[in-house]
Structures are given as C-alpha cells and as structure tokens.
Amino acid sequence: MKMQTKAHYKSEIPEKKKEAHRRTNLRRGSLIPAVPRFGGNNGHDNHDATGIKAYAAQSAAASLGPFAIRRREVGSLDVQIEILYCGVCHSDLHMVRNEWEQTVYPCVPGHEIVGRVTKVGRGVKKFKEGDLAGVGCIVDSCRTCSSCQSGLEQYCEHDPVQTYNSKDTHLGGVNYGGYSKSIVVDEAFVLRVSDKLNLAAVAPLLCAGITTYSPLRHWKLGEGKKVGIVGLGGLGHMAVKFARSFGAHVVLFTTSPEKGADAIRLGAHEVVVSKDQVQMNQHLNSFDFILDAVSAEHDINAYLNLLKVDGTLTLVGLPQKPLGIAAFNLIGHRRQFAGSMIGGIAETQEMLDYCADHGIVSDVELISMDHVNEAYEQMLKGQVKYRFVIDMESL
Ligand code: NAP
Ligand code: ZN
Ligand code: ZN
Q1: Which ligand gives the minimal distance to the CA of 112?
Q2: With CB atoms counted within 10 Å of each terminal CB, which end of the chain scores lower, N or C?
C-alpha cells in the first residue's frame, strides 16, 4: 500500500438524508441490526445500493464492527461483484490502527477480494453476470500518465485510487474495501479468476500474491539465483512458493523456528533462524536477491550483509517506523536497496493465470466476519497459517 498524503474526506451524510435513508431501508425491511450509522457518499441518493453490510473500524482504538455502506449504481463500464471471500492483509491492520497516520474513519478495509459478478454495465466486455472476478489493491488510476501507459497503474503519477481509504471518485467521501457484501468496480480494474482453484485460497493472491510475484519477475529471479525471503507470513509464504516455482534456490529467514518445517513444505530449500548469528554468518555475501516482507521494526543491515556484489534487497514490508541503513553495508559490495508495491493490472492477471496453470494458491484459514478482531491479534503474534480469509457468507 502506498503512503498517501494525509487527507480528511467528508464522510458523513447530512442528518436529514440519513433519516430518509433509514426510513427507506425500514420500509424495505433491510435495516441491518446493530449498524451504528451509514457511511459514505455525502448525501448522494443511490436507492438500489443502500445498506450494504460491511465491517468497519470507527477509530484507531476501536475494534471492527458491523456497519452499512453504499456502493455506486452500476455505470456503463462497471462490474458489480458479490464478494464471496476477502483476505486479511497486514496492511488492513496497519490501516485500521492508523499506523501510517493516514486513515479516514469509518474505515472498511479489505483488498484481497474474490466474488461473483451480479451485474455489468452496458459497455462491459470482459465480464458477464455469473462470472468469477477478483479485485486487488487498486480500483482506478489516471490511465494517461507514463506509469499507467506502461501497465504500472500502482505507480500512477497522480496516485492510484486504492480499494479503500482513497477518495471515492464517484460518490465523494472515502471509499470502502472488501470486508463487505458487494463492490462496484470499473472493469479495467477487475481481474478474471479461474474456476480451477479453491476460491478462498485465491483471494490472497490479489495482494500477497502479486506483491511478491511482481518483484521476483522484475528482478528476473529463477534458475541459478539464490533468493532469500524474510518473514513467513501472508506475503512471505507466497514469495517462497513463487521463487521455488520460478526455479530459484530459496532460503527462508524467520524469527519463528517452529515454522521451519512449513517453510520446507511450501518450497524453501533452506531455513535460517534469523536470531541465530552462526546460521546467518553461513550466508554472508552470497545472495543475488532478498525480499523483505516483515511488518515490524527489524535490523535490515543483517540482510544487506548477506547480499553478494551487485545483489539487491527489496522491501515489500511496510513497518511503521523508518529502517536504519548503515552506509558501509551498501557501498562495500555495490549492493542495492529497493522497494516494490503490489503490481499493475496486466501483471496481476498474468500472476492469476500463472497460478491457475501451476496450481498455486495461498495456504488459508477460513474465518467468519465476527472473528476478524481476534484474527488481527493472532496475525500480530504470527499465529496464522498463512493467511486468514473471511467467508463473506458469515457477514
Ligand atoms: P504477516 O502475515 O503478519 O507476516 C509478517 C511476518 O513478518 C510475520 O509472519 C513474521 O514472520 C515477520 N515478523 C513479524 N514481526 C516481526 C519482527 N518484529 N521482527 C522480525 N520479523 C517479524 O504480514 P503480511 O500480510 O505478509 O504483510 C507484511 C508486510 O507487507 C506488512 O507491513 C504489510 O503492510 C506489507 N505489505 C506491503 C505491500 C506492498 O505493496 N509492498 C502489499 C501488502 C502488504 P516470521 O515469524 O517468519 O519471522
Ligand atoms: Zn495487502
Ligand atoms: Zn496514471
């Protein structure tokens, strides 16, 4: 997730409108119990899409709870998707707790979305009602800048519209993510999903999958390359699977020795417990590439020292605090320190197709919506194997 400039979108509906919506929903018998208030569209009427069930955080200190949102009406290029599964990314937790100091509340997170198309606009070509579909971390971009023209919408020079906590360019206010029953997205940002794979296990590919696939492809990692993956979480376990599938020699670094057997099962050739200096020293100056997928503060220098001449350490993890880099660890071996954010739409489709062809999915634990707060705590303790996915039927 890209850091955005701090913005405060007006997300409250005027009292009169709120009351009108409440009454409309009461008449339809569709008012959701225990929903604190409507979020959303700054007063636009949107009669066929009111009161969609969702889960939101109302502040950085609050747990997520039931909430009702609106989605825009289906425009001519739009696809409406009934969300079946949504993965729980550590970015959701960072954002819900305002760890990047940019969160607008109420916040409905979720950007690992898989579902079924329920309606398409007149001009939609790629999808029809009943198709499976996926939505990842971005739902729009300027489409004209050089990044967008090169299929790098995630690096749009005018900032991509992220799936949640971005400005809602249709309804105003802030937009809402996948911890909800449905979503409406322009077909250009909707992905085709194969019916060959377990759908719940496909959901995490929309963020954890593409975020690890993209840098491994960009730096051309495959046969003959020694690749390190730091952290066996949602992203890390996908990185291990992809790096192995691309033919690299894969070494997994973990702070959790008990994950070693899983790492080997997932595809690692070797496992290094990063707290063990003797094990770390055995790999000094030897890696072509290391992908760092750690969510919290840690010593990046310990990994820079493991790169050989011209080796690259790429950061995908987004810890709250800045990481300190010792200059000598970079200049000594002409090492490179880089970053990477998700992937473009075409590459995300390529990744999903690659996964369908090679039978690659995420290892998931299916949870109900009301388990999500507990799931966040478990994720913080590293107690997830290796991605929680919400079964939206439970919402
Ligand atoms: P996750 O499932 O919680 O995994 C993070 C892993 O980091 C843990 O499993 C743990 O692995 C390791 N770890 C946690 N705390 C640590 C500490 N204090 N010191 C060392 N290692 C620690 O999280 P995730 O969903 O994979 O996301 C990882 C990070 O990537 C998050 O910061 C997230 O926001 C970011 N992210 C970035 C992008 C992007 O586009 N760049 C996209 C999605 C997510 P071990 O137990 O094996 O040590
Ligand atoms: Zn994510
Ligand atoms: Zn652009």
Answers
A1: 2
A2: C
